[in-house]
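seq:
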Amino acid sequence: MSDSRVASRRRYLVCEPRHFAVRYAINPWMRPGRPVDIALARRQWRTLIDTYRDHGHTVDTVEPEPALPDMVFAANAAVVVEGRVFGSLFLAPERRPESVPYEAWFKAAGYEVHHPESVCEGEGDLVPAGRWILAGTGFRTTREAHREVQEFFGVPVIGLTLVDPYFYHLDTALFVLDEENIAYYPEAFSPGSREVLARLYPDAVLATREDAMAFGLNSVSDGRHVFVSPGATALAARLADRGYVPVPVDLSEFHKAGGGIKCCTQEIRS
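struct:
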């Protein structure tokens, strides 16, 4: 069955975890003072990048800055659709300066960047999914930002309310498998949002809480290969049953800051 799934080549923007640390707490995963093994983090990150390239994907890098320990989470910096860049306005003051180096990278690469007027955290809460953009709110990105995104891209935006603080960004509770389907953890969402997802994606791959807590939904798919946390074993089995090819990549050191594979990966959709 996996032969029916077709991978498409992707372009990713990433940032080396040279200065990665947990210096403050802005989600339940973060415990300041908890030791972070920088050498291990860099090895894990390098494995992710090598794995992307081994699967035919292009990877660009932005230079990390010493004062920005969360800059490694490139997904939060913007959302890019058809070569148009909608930037970020972080909720936490500690992260707001991250927008500057990412914006500079995009501008140097020839892109124009739209500055959000409302709190908006890039692909953390904005997930392009074929005909529409799935948009999370409840902890970070605001509903006003959803409207701003829809007006900017001219693409329907479907708002989804997150209710569990452990899944504070949409990309910790849901990821896109291909143009037609997603995987998600239903209990991360409000009852109404669960109904919306069930209507839009009746054949979605559903994850358990154990999968979600292992950052199994902070995954990246190229339409065939799913780069997924090795701890999400039940989810990996379900994906394989549906014809996808799980590619386990361990980013456990980044879980200490509430991030994983997708958080470290900004997709540039030209």
